[in-house]
Amino acid sequence: MNPKRYAVIVNPYGGNRRAIAIWEQVRPLFVEAGAEVVVYPTEHAGHGRELAESLDPSVTDAICVVGGDGSVHEVVNGLLAREDKAQFDLGIIPAGTGNTLHDHLGCHEPMSAAEIILRGKTHLIDVVRVTMPKECVYCVNIVGWGAVTDIARLAERLRLLGTVRYSAATLWQIARPIVRSVKLKLDDQSIEDEFQLVIACNTKKTGTGMLLAPRAEIHDGKVDLVVLRHASRWQMLQLFRSILDGSHLSLSFVENYQVSSFGIESRSCDALNLDGELMGNTPFSAEVLPQALKVFV
Ligand SMILES: Nc1ncnc2c1ncn2[C@@H]1O[C@H](COP(=O)(O)OP(=O)(O)OP(=O)(O)O)[C@@H](O)[C@H]1O
Fold it and tell me: Transmembrane stretches, by residue range (predicted)?
């Protein structure tokens, strides 16, 4: 039987404040389907996680997130942190500036995403658990270190530039690359060297449509790592141009691994990019939790 009782978590600030309007656009489909719906507009950052951690499984069958990558990340972390281990099917309706998991699962626009949810077909997807000394975070999209974090941090400071901020931050990073010496662990292998970028992908695309991991499958128990050691500015430029269509995997200086666990140890405390959010630090270890989350597809 299809779930009929949905808790709908809407981030009113998602997608430049369009999420409530998007929910109102798709709500009639839920009404027509006879679904029972309780709407929870989030009141503060972190609220989505609190809701997902505390919703009563005896009155809710599924959770729908109306928001972007940040909202999905919060809800996934709430679900996986539940003490009662209760499981809810997860539906995602794109309403953010970045909708990465939505795109990977074919939920490209709100109406078709709502139809997918109401159809009731589910699929199990992998989740990456990132363990740091003081916290544990679950990711469904990316775990990034190095240039990917430096670019995200700079882009945040350039918000006034709008979407151009990512290109501006990327060009700055190419002009002034930062190289760090770390120990990179890949399953049973350990590599000590200088690196510029390490990014583990659960989804094929990331950010604003970059095809970073064209071979990634979200239910294969593995993440696809893109690794760049000490590269020249020209090589960096080549990399950032070719990740738009996934052709970077054929560049000789770009390494690609498929692993079920990985981690980074560094002398400095380097920031991480977890599902597009700047949070967490090295050292960390990460492992793929195979098929840990049920989503509507
Ligand atoms: N009521 C709220 N007030 C402030 N922040 C909120 C609220 N509800 C949710 N948030 C935060 O907004 C963040 C971004 O949300 P979301 O991903 O849905 O939208 P977005 O448009 O893609 O955002 P961004 O591009 O800023 O990441 C979430 O990580 C969440 O913590």
Answer: none
Write out pLDDT tens, residues 217-230. Answer: 999 999 999 999 99
Cβ–Cβ under 8 Å, residues 14 and 95: yes
Is 69 marked active-site? yes
Residues 154 and 198 in one domain: yes
130, part of any domain = no
Which is the closest atom of ligand 1 to the Cα of 70?
17
Low-confidence ranges of the chain (pLDDT < 50): none
- Cβ < 6 A, ligand 1 pocket: 11-15, 42-47, 67-71, 74, 96-98
Report the nearest-CA residue for atom 31 of ligand 1. 45
Report how far ligand 1's centroid is from the alpha carbon of 42 (Å): 9
Regarding an ipTM greater than 0.90, the answer is: yes
190: containing domain: 136-290
Please write down the HEC assignment for all residues of 14-34: HHHHCHHHHHHHHHHHHHHCC
User: What distance in Å separates the CA atoms of residue 266 and residue 219, rounded to the nearest whole number?
Assistant: 30
